[in-house]
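As a warm-up, study this chain.
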Amino acid sequence: MVNMTRDEAFSELKKLVKNENLIKHHLACEICMKALYRKLTPQNLQNQWDEEKWGMVGLLHDADYELSKGSPEKHTLILEQKLGSKLLPEVMYAIKSHNWQNNGVEPKSLMDWSIYSCDELTGLIIAATLIHPDKKLSSVNVDFVMNRFNEPSFARGASRAQIRTCETKLNIPLKDFISVCLEAMQAISSSLGL
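Now compare it with the structure written out below.
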């Protein structure tokens, strides 16, 4: 089986994605996916290999976004053509499944549903941080994000329904889900520029 190292994956990401904010989105999803792996996997079953695999899904999930702009049905499929042979099948499947409403590849595993749910949440957390008085992730708390979540006009592009799948597909209450992802993103705030 083939799998890229994290450094190789990040190098590929930088080749495919030119927008710095989009790269930061990938970093946010990577750290959230690792945190979700730890949350969802019993401690006695956790291992570094699987955690890295979950992180790889987050790191590469939108790597073809700039290439598929305007053709949402091609999003993730272009990436599969470019990097699919270098990724583990379950990693590529999870990446494709986060766009299942456009490409028909339905999420099945906890890894698949995790990227589907956290993809939108990371954007909401960043948007909430940017309206916080000091614009620092360290100053944002779960209640601040929940208040923004409950404002339909705030960050309209962040699908609340998609984020809420954390409750039905991952069995994580929304506030807990926000907490897991917010704390993970706070740990890399300097990389996110926040």
